[in-house]
Amino acid sequence: MEVIKKIVGYLTFRKDTGEGSFLKSMHVINKISILMFLVAMVVLVVKLTR
C-alpha cells in the first residue's frame, strides 16, 4: 500500500520542491510517462476482458 500512496502523491501534480528547471522538467516527464503507462494498462485490461 505504501507504493500506491507514493504513486498517487507523485501524480497529484503538487508544486515540485526541487531546485532548477532541469529537475522540474524531469518530474513532469516522469509524471507523463507514469500516466501513459497507467492508460496503457487500462486499455490492455479492457481488451483482454472482452
Model description:
The longest helix has 29 residues. The relative contact order is 0.11. The protein has one domain. The model has no long low-confidence stretch (mean pLDDT 80). Helices cover 76% and strands 0% of the residues.
Count of helical regions: 2
Secondary-structure-based class equals mainly alpha
**Quaternary structure:** single chain
The structural domain count equals 1
**Which outline best applies?**
elongated
- Element pattern in H and E: HH
Average predicted confidence as pLDDT: 80
Largest sheet: none
Could you tell me the strand content as a percent range? under 5%
Compute the number of strand runs: 0
End-to-end span in angstroms?
29 Å
Binned, the helix content reads over 70%
Brief summary of the model shown:
The chain is mainly alpha-helical and 50 residues long. It has two helices and no strands.
